[in-house]
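[Q] Does anyone have a clean structure-token version of this?
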Amino acid sequence: MNGLKQFPRMWHSEIYKFLIIELAEQGGGRQEVQNERPQVWPRSRNYLGRKNRIPKLSESSNAQSVLKRFGMDKCNSAARPMETQAKAIPHEDPSQAPADDVPYSNAIGSVVYLMTGTRPAMGEVIGKLSQFSEHPLLEHWTTVKRVFLNISRTRDVEIVDGGRKSVTPFGYTDSDWASCSKTRKSTSGYVFMMAGGPVSWRSEKQTNSPIIL
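[A] Here you go.
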């Protein structure tokens, strides 16, 4: 259903029913709502849950599935999804070897799903790598595999509601400065926090180039 215009509304409807059922169960109404549980949600127990009665988001099973799908389930780990110097990601270069025989687009799509759900730290590198989906180089594929190494390290990381922490939202935003050597465009990003955990994040290349005097 991903990609359909009506998908957000369908998702909202299902998540609303699921959360209502969860609240009813916590209040002792498990028997009454057991027959009304949507059949689509058994798999979602791996994503939505509670840790010491505190809501949490986890994609550990999905992360493991992605690693296994691309033969990276027994790989080492990396602390960051990319090197500190983001400019290490090269642009299209006819002199460089193309990555014709690797599942580049499939890998990017799988990682985008993880990034959107529970891994804001991967936003920048995935945004950069997705720009080369049509003509990736082997160097791009090497960077994708480094993202897999980071997923291996963070597969059990969860987004946990802070419980009694303040629910007042606040955010951070920043951008690099003309980091794209080809277009001189900047990449902007933001993350908004509430109750001790991230609730919204994005990283995107700006549409206009900065004026450099």
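[Q] Thanks! Anything notable?
[A] The chain has a mean pLDDT of 76.
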